[in-house]
Design goal:
Layout (H helix, E strand, L loop, with lengths): L7 H6 L7 E4 L3 E5 L9 E5 L11 H22 L3 E5 L15 E6 L17 H14 L1
Antiparallel strand pairs: 1-2, 2-3, 3-5, 4-5
């Protein structure tokens, strides 16, 4: 296992510190978030240490997403949620606090008061220009 001896999530994966683990396989671990947005909020991590989605190998990402799907179904049923948010924060500006790649599976209820993201409109040809910039990077 690739690990970072100081990483909280590596320590959870190695069972060096306690967590409410709800699912585990050879490559992934899912456990309840200690500061949940709603009860049942679960984190899914690769057991190996990768800082964020940029460094997470495709094979590991695929395994993590299979676990995310399995956990999302289980959390929705167990919490009787009306829906599920699956999120992944990368870097501090996006809200990443633990620098071990992880996905949040958050049960949502119609009246939970957890706000949705605000929208920002494109003006003029900004949308087309942005699409071209991103297309160029994807093709690189």
């Amino acid at each position: 296992m690739i690990d970072n001896k100081e990483c909280l999530f590596c320590k959870i994966a190695a069972k060096e510190i306690p967590a409410q683990i709800i699912y585990e396989d050879a490559q992934t671990v899912a456990f309840l978030d200690i500061s949940p947005n709603n009860h049942g909020h679960t984190l899914v991590i690769p057991k190996d240490h990768f800082e964020n989605i940029y460094t997470l190998p495709q094979e590991a990402l695929c395994q993590v997403m299979l676990t995310v799907q399995k956990v999302a179904v289980a959390v929705k049923i167990a919490t009787q949620a009306d829906g599920i948010n699956v999120t992944n924060n990368n870097e501090s500006a996006a809200g990443q606090e633990i620098f071990h790649s992880h996905f949040h599976v958050i049960p949502r209820h119609s009246n939970d008061g957890f706000p949705h993201w605000p929208h920002k409109a494109y003006i003029g040809d900004e949308m087309e220009k942005m699409a071209e910039k991103i297309k160029k990077e994807v093709a690189a």
